[in-house]
Amino acid sequence: MEGLARLEYRGYDSAGVALIAGEHVVTAKRAGKLANLVAALAQESLPESGTAIGHTRWATHGAPTDENAHPHLGGEDGKLALIHNGIIENFHGLRAALIEEGIHFQSETDTEVVAQLLARSYDKVGDLTEAMRQIVGELKGAFTLLAVHADQPGVVVGARRNSPLVVGIGDGETYMGSDVAAFIGYTREALELAQDQIVTITTAGATIINFDGTPGQGKAYHVDWDAAAAQKGGFPNFMAKEINDQPHAVADTLLGRTNEAGALVLDELRIDEAELRAVDKIVIIACGTAAYAGMVAKYAIEHWTRIPCEVELAHEFRYRDPVVNARTLVVAISQSGETMDTLMAVKHARVLGARVIAICNTHGSTIPRESDAALYTHAGPEIAVASTKAFLAQITACYILGLYLAQLRGGTYADEAQAVMRDLGETPAKIQTVLDGLDRVREIARFMVDTRSVLFLGRHVGYPVALEGALKLKELAYIHAEGFAAGELKHGPIALIEAGQPVFVIVPSPHSEHGLHDKVVSSIQEIRARGARTIVIAEEGDEDVVPFADEIIRVPVTPTLLAPLLTVVPLQVFACELASAKGLDVDQPRNLAKSVTVE
Ligand code: AGP
Q1: pTM value?
Q2: Digit-coded pLDDT (tens) for 234-256
Q3: What counts of helices (H) and strands (E) characterise the chain?
């Protein structure tokens, strides 16, 4: 339970434990915070045991209920218990096949499907390690699995693919956890695992094999973090950790949304396809960073679907007597799913007859519940108040929705939807490339620690990125910052330019179809001529910016509409580093709350 408490930041919508007592597996699980489980166990304690698994959940499939909480039992005799982090992309097909075989499911989770698969495999081979090895090849997606079986007391078997798992080697005790925070109170000797490995632990230690059955090696290391640092994965704060989580946040949000043929499949949407085909206007409503994600998405959604798409601040939408009817699709974007301004706008939109889809990062929250359907981002819990990985996941989810509508409506871009999904699939690696090259950005931030004002310029999809960059700097470093559409400069803002004024400029790709690259380079020239200090974010190979840039931050070549997933990252790191250099609380900035649940 102490280990679960240390992992609670990773997921806190339900929790559970399973242990082996005599011939049986005994479980206890509760929706809500870990405290609910602790209270339940205080009422009715579990028997003593030396073999146990525990889980705190961040729901991806199925609402946070007692039934959907982990562990899940497998087999008719319920002798096997399993916990899982990640997303099994092909669980629908696996579940249908098991139902055909007469298996009955208690929950709607992808995890229970794995528990049943593992139990069926165990019944055939009679060994939990081999049973695990037999099934991991059938699973697609990202997963960390831990299982126990009553017939093998003293054994816990784990498996991992694209999801974290570390082993703790104690003195006559062995542990596994999603990160070292789980067992750092008991041992600092850890084993790092490689991809596609299965670990079997007993009191004697850990045995590792690869998915193909060959012997594997763990990389031993000594954990010198304290427990708090361990929760942040060794990063100085949750915001730095979440910025570095972004490749996974985008990759996990893409998981399970296309079928074998590469076509988009959004069966979680549950809105009649005919209604979606009849939509003649889309209105995106959100606040803050979520609204900027919507502004980015507008360019893509209109381009792919040819449906007019407005983006409206939720707190304005409600009071401007909007033109909304049964053919309007309202998309509410919210990380927390509890933002009151957005919730009230959702309710208003439904009163006006619109269908509402929530794009949300928090299962079981209010906004998805009040909407007709939900398309969840899979960014994992976002702890830092300033939103980063949720922003990228929101853009990704909006693109998935836009491509799905284009595919459904057979528009010009229906056949290209798969090409765009492939490009999106390459984005996590490009985000990682950007993350690996930001030392200079950190130096610039520390150098600018006393700056009083920073401007951000962008155009097309770069314009909302400029707004988001300014918001990050405002809310983290408490510095006046403003984002502009670069084309707006001559209409007033250029009066702000004076010697030394720092200006970030997000430059479109020279290959962009819209041809705005040269116009933005001209804007850089104009402000540089008036003394601005130009910090330019430009694509690899773009030499046109060199003569006018005091600093150049490079991002990999990527399609125009996907560029925001890369160009925002240096701005996030800049704001985070500058705030840290000022000694400010990056995770909990003054005056702000993670979820604004009042109007
Ligand atoms: C973003 O960094 C801010 N924390 C804030 O603008 C946030 O995006 C906004 O309050 C919306 O929150 P939501 O996504 O949870 O609805």
Answers
A1: 0.85
A2: 899 999 999 999 999 999 999 98
A3: 20, 23
